[in-house]
């Protein structure tokens, strides 16, 4: 390769790196602005707008959120439990179903594939699922109402099944010759070789469970069982209702300036998304590999 070509290649690589650095900055700056807004004064934010750095540090929004630390702490524990338990069960059941469907010697493979994939063409609706979960399964005011519904996902099953199909059949045959049964092959070989796709499923499931609020709205009545997202939403609705009452009562408008609204929204975003941003780097090295390798074949 000539010197001119090497210089041209280095310049091209420099421009590519500069582009991705700029793109990463564009993705990060909005979240920095959110953090800045959550630490800003409500009146200053309304008058001067958003900025990358807060003009004055004001912890009022966080003081409203953590006014009762035990309530927020309990909501964090509930969310942590449903995230860990829901993720573990989803990954386990998804891997088990995907492994069975990926084995050519499984006699009921076609029938089970039809049973699993056919219901995705239509939906039974909210009312039937609510009746089943509340009246037949008795999941009302139970954390299992936030875990069991949606414990299996057809997209995840397809992705993991495709990954299992790419594993060499010789490994499974050699294990069978050595006397290993299907359970041992599944837990010792298949799962150990499928960390990228399982980590991808785990991350996507954990993200969904962490942001769980809709099922809580339907099935949870006990405030002690509120997950974090639903608790924050309830707090925001109460603040908005108070602000709406203030607009209709002129004598209360003086206290509106101290009532956070925009800064409270931004603080809730930070409180809700912060833990997931911390855990994401640990899944990042598996995420891309799992998504690509699990979608090469159908």
From TrEMBL:
It comes from Anaerocolumna jejuensis DSM 15929. One of its GO terms (cellular component) is plasma membrane. The chain crosses the membrane at residues 12-35, 75-99, 111-131, 143-164, 185-206, 264-283. This is Putative aldouronate transport system permease protein. Gene3D superfamilies: MetI-like (1.10.3720.10). Keywords: Cell membrane, Membrane, Transmembrane, Transmembrane helix, Transport. GO terms for biological process: transmembrane transport. It is a multi-pass membrane protein. It comes from the Bacteria. Its main location: membrane.
